[in-house]
Here is the input.
Amino acid sequence: MFCYQCQETARGTGCDRMGVCGKHADTSARMDLLLYAVRGVSLINRALREKGEPSREASHLVIDALFTTITNANFDNPSLDDYIRRAFEVKNLLAGTAKKLLAGTAKKQGVSLPDLPQVEFYAQPDEAEKYRPVTGVLAEPDADIRGLKQLAIYGCKGMAAYARHAANLGYEDDDVYAIIENAMAETARPDVSVDELFSLVLNVGEGGVKVMALLDKANTESYGNPEITKVDIGVRDRPGILISGHDLKDLEELLEQSAGKGVDIYTHSEMLPGQYYPAFKKYPHFAGNYGNAWWKQTDEFESFNGVFLFTSNCIVPPRKNCTYLDRVYTTGVVGMPGTHHIEEGRDGKPKDFSALIAHAQKCPPPTAIEHGEIIGGFAHHQVIELAPKVIDLIKRGKIRKFVVMAGCDGRFPSRDYYTKFAQALPEDCVILTAGCAKYRYNKLPLGDIEGVPRVLDAGQCNDSYSLVRIALALRDALGLKDVNDLPIVYNIAWYEQKAVIVLLALLALGVKNIHTGPTLPAFFTPDILKVLQDKFNIGTITTVDQDIATMIG
Ligand code: SF4
Ligand code: SF3
Here is the structure.
C-alpha cells in the first residue's frame, strides 16, 4: 500500500505497510481501485456534461466514493466493495449512454471518444491489490506530478464531503460537481503538465469556496443562523447518545426521533457546533458536548456508557480491550467492522434510528469527565452583527490582531504547540477558529476584550467559510482594498483532506502568508512548495516564540 494523504502519515513520507490511522493494506488497495473507477466515471460524466446531459447519479457516486476514502471514514472492506461494484456498474452504464450520445458528434467533428481507464470494466473488489500498480498513488512515477495530482484529489475529497452534507439537506450545485469531475478526469491524464495541475488545484480551491458557501446556505436556511451559545460539558442522569461527525441532517433526525424517549443527546468533536443552531435548541433532551477531538475517542468513549453515532469522519479503530464497539452505529459513508450501519431512508423518508435509540435506553448514564461550559456560535452572521463593536475595538487599538487557527486536531504530541501558541498570544489578539483544531485551546481561560471572547468559534471545519465572510466584511468596513491588508494572520492546523480544501479555498481567494502545520503535507515536494511559497508565501510553524514574533510582531 501507499498512502500519504494525511498529516500523520508514517515517517512524514507515506504509510506503506499499514496506516498510522489503522487502515490495512487490503482496505487501502480497495480505496485505490474505487478512486480509479470514479476517475473513469468522472471522465465520461464530464464529456456528457459538455453535451448538457450529465448524470446526477454519477455525480452522487463520485462524491460518495471520494468522501468514503477520506481519512478515518471507512475501514470496512465489504462496504468499500459495494462502492466499487456500484462504481463499475455506473461507469459501464454511463459509457453506453456516452457512446450513443457522443458517437454522432465525434464522427461529425472528427474527434475520438474520451479515453476510458485501462482496468477491466468489471475488476472484482478482492482483486484490488492486483491492480495497484495501475490504480495506486505510486502509479504516477514523477513525484511533482504525483503530488499535484493527489493535492487536487485530496481537495476534491474535502469538497465531496461538504457537497454530500449539503445534498442531504437538498442543496446541490452542478458547478461543484463539474469542478470535482473535471479535476478527477484531469488527474487521469498521463500527459498533464505541472502548470496545468497548478491551475487545476486553484480551480479546486474555487470549488472549495463554492461548496462551503453552499453548505453554509444549506445549514443556515434549514436550521437558522448560529447564535452565541453556552454549551454544557458535564452530564445528566439519563442514558446518552453521543453523535459525532459533521452531518446536521442526521443530528436533526436523531433529535426528532429520540424526543420523549428517556435519553439525552450529546455532541462529540465536530458535532459540537450543532449546539449553536436555533432549530435544535427546542429539544430539551439536547444535553451538551461530551469529550474532545476525535483522537481521544478510544479513551473518552469508555466512560460515556451509552451509544455512539458516527455521521462522517473521524472514527478511530477500537483498541483490543475496547468495551464499547457493539454500541457504535455508523451511517452515510462511514464504516467500521463490528459496528452497526444505519441505511439511508427510502423514498424521501428519514433514516430509522429506532434500533440505536432502543439500545441507548438500556444503557447506564454517562460518567462525567469534565464540568462547566464552553462558548461558541460566532459564525459570520453573528460576528457581523457585532461588527461595529469589533471595529471600534480595532480602531482603539484594543484588538491588535485576529489569528485564524482553524482546521483539525490530531494525535501528534507536537500539536501541543497550538495550546501553547494560544496561551502565549498577547492579550490584544483574538483567535478565530473552526474545525476540531479548537479543542487544543477552547477550554483555556483566555478571557475577553471588552466582552468579545478571545476565542471566537465559528463552527465546523466547513465554517471556515464564515471566517472568510468575516474577513471580507472587515476589509470593507475598514476601507481596505486587499484582504491581505487586514490585521489577520493564519496559523492553520491540518490533519485530513477537509483541511486541504479549506487551504485551497483560502489560496483561491488570494489569501497569503498562511502557516500550516504541525508539519507540511508529504505530497508537497520541494518544487511544489517553492511555487506555493513564491505565489502565496505559504510556510509552516517553528517555535511558539518565533512564530508569535513573526506573526504578531
Ligand atoms: Fe497513513 Fe493517513 Fe493514509 Fe491513514 S490516511 S494510511 S495514516 S496517510
Ligand atoms: Fe476534525 Fe476529523 Fe479534520 Fe472537520 S473531525 S476537522 S480531523
Q: What stands out?
A: The pocket of FE4-S3 cluster (ligand 2) is lined by residues 72, 246, 269-270, 294, 313-314, 408, 435-436, 460-461, 495-496, 498-499 (CB under 6 Å). The radius of gyration is 23 Å.
